[in-house]
């Protein structure tokens, strides 16, 4: 992943890169001669084909025409020189305007960062809005990314927890609430800008967000956003009694990661989201409470991974989800509590894998699910204490499910529809 820890240098693709005048003129004249030669040859060929009379005698009219042609060549050469000079002047003006815009941006950036470091929460709030405005007006994407990096870095800074509303700590409590307002404002601005369509003014889609290790204690709303490029990282983040919404979002590319996150009372929702490409990862995440919601999501591509995740509580829901392609994996995950729910899900393509997943507690339900295609795989899954139900499921039984049941301990409970019951020899 791209390193987002510090500011980035300005992109160099707008820097002034011009040929020397002599080289530019030589190339221009050479191009003009080639074009003139090609035109002359075509005309000569046309005249020859049409059998037009040619005379070897040089009369006054022909001489006059040659003189006019000579002056035309001189005039054309002068026009070429003027064109080259005008081109260089235009490029110099554009480069100067870009340098001036970058200089003004840098000055405003320094002022905004100074505000963000103020002891006053109100001044910090002004710095947040100033940086967001700078990101909107940045002359190039690299400067925009720098502003976003600073806002994300502020969220990653450690802060003192809420001391409570004890009168003895009233000042500390008020300071905590004021700074939390600043943090929540950043989260709101990020969500607002990501919901704007890619390529439109003030859209931050395509930029990277590094929220690694952030404690999110508010609401981060990506409702209806489109992720077609860039990276949004929540790795090692802590979600406590908050909400992150990707409801109705479209994942056609890009990467969203929740690797090694801890969800202990939050809601992360992908309901009605559409996955056609890209990747969403909860690898090595820990679920002790809260909800991850993929209800009515559509999977026609891309990858969603819960590999090596640990579920001791909470709920992961795929109710009414549709799987026509793509991959969802719970490989080597551990379920000792909580619930994973695939009720009424439709599997007509793609892959859902529980390879070497350990079910020691909690429950998983595929009730009324439809297995008409694709692959649902329980290869080397271990049932030693969970409740797994496939009541009224239709279609073909998942791969290796009967093998996993055959090796299940007596503490496990697996309910199958009549059509899937193993046949006694």
Q: How does this structure look, described?
A:
With 425 residues, this protein is of the alpha/beta class. The protein has a domain at 1-157. It contains six helices and 22 strands. The strands form two sheets. Strands 2, 3, 6, 7, 9, 11, 13, 15, 17, 19, 20 and 22 form a twelve-stranded parallel β-sheet that branches. Helix 2 runs antiparallel to helix 3 (121-137), helix 2 packs parallel to helix 4 (141-156) and helix 3 runs antiparallel to helix 4. The two termini are 55 Å apart. Mean pLDDT is 81; it is low at 1-15.
At a glance:
This protein has helices at 21-49, 60-116, 121-137, 141-156, 170-194, 401-406; strands at residues 209-210, 215-216, 219-221, 226-227, 231-233, 238-239, 243-245, 250-257, 262-269, 274-281, 286-293, 298-305, 310-317, 322-329, 334-341, 346-353, 358-365, 370-377, 382-383, 387-389, 394-395, 413-415. It is α/β, with parallel strands linked by helices. Strands 2, 3, 6, 7, 9, 11, 13, 15, 17, 19, 20 and 22 form a twelve-stranded parallel beta sheet that branches.
Question: What key phrases describe this protein's structure?
Answer:
425 residues, alpha/beta, 12-stranded parallel sheet, 10-stranded parallel sheet, disordered N terminus
